[in-house]
Specification:
Chain lengths: 110, 111
């Protein structure tokens, strides 16, 4: 059974803080993704990675960066958090087409 | 890039009724169309998918149809039950394993 975990379920940060969201998968998947979920806007792709140290921008990469130093771990970094980054962040992994999602991190930026 | 439109945004039905959610896509290169269900407070999970070489696929009470010519696909749920209440996302996959998601449909099934 695929397991994708995220470091926090809820997070409260202040404007300007550097924020790290971590995602770990245990199925040796090559592909990992970070999405942002907002009401009425669906799932929007921030970044994805198809291999260790490889990353590509998704549809809304501005204000975010990522790191993939190990195959099982994919980190999303908010260099300087802003209030418009308050959202639900979902990580996913895949070997082929099917995406397996983590439980999500609800981030509030004050 | 790919653009996926999903309708309706909210769908309210009585238990036992059928529910239909429709999606259109723009990129003719898309060849894989999954549907994900997200229950309240939980993670999205794949419930059914269809590939471009198939017109229809069924799994018990759910079915998906695909019209490649018109670039639209639909999710059909028959005999709806309260546990079907959730947000449903369609997606189209034009670039390898990277889906473009619709905005979601909130399905409410009233007992």
């Amino acid at each position: 059974d695929v397991k994708v975990t995220q470091s926090s379920r809820y997070l409260v940060k202040r404007t300007g803080e550097k924020v790290f969201l971590e995602c770990v998968q245990d199925m040796d998947h090559e592909n990992m993704f970070w999405y942002r979920q907002d009401p009425g806007l669906g799932l929007r792709l921030i970044y994805f990675s198809y291999d260790v140290k490889m990353k590509e921008k998704g549809d809304i990469p501005e204000g975010y960066s990522v790191s993939r130093e190990k195959k099982e771990r994919f980190s999303l970094i908010l260099e300087s958090a802003s209030t418009n980054q308050t959202s639900m962040y979902l990580c996913a992994s895949s070997a082929q087409e099917t995406q397996y999602f983590g439980p999500g991190t609800r981030l509030l930026v004050l | 890039g790919e653009n996926v439109e999903q309708h309706p945004s909210t769908l309210s039905v009585q238990e036992g009724d059928s529910a239909v959610i429709k999606c259109t896509y723009s990129d003719s290169a898309s060849n894989y169309f999954p549907w994900y269900k997200q229950e309240l407070g939980k993670r999205p999970q794949l419930i059914i998918d269809i590939r471009s070489n198939v017109g229809e696929k069924k799994d018990q009470r759910i079915a998906v149809t695909l019209n490649k010519t018109a670039k639209h696909f639909s999710l059909h749920i028959t005999e709806t039950q309260p546990e079907d209440s959730a947000v449903y996302f369609c997606a189209a996959t034009p670039r390898g394993y990277i889906p473009t998601f619709g905005r979601g449909t909130s399905l409410i099934v009233h007992p």
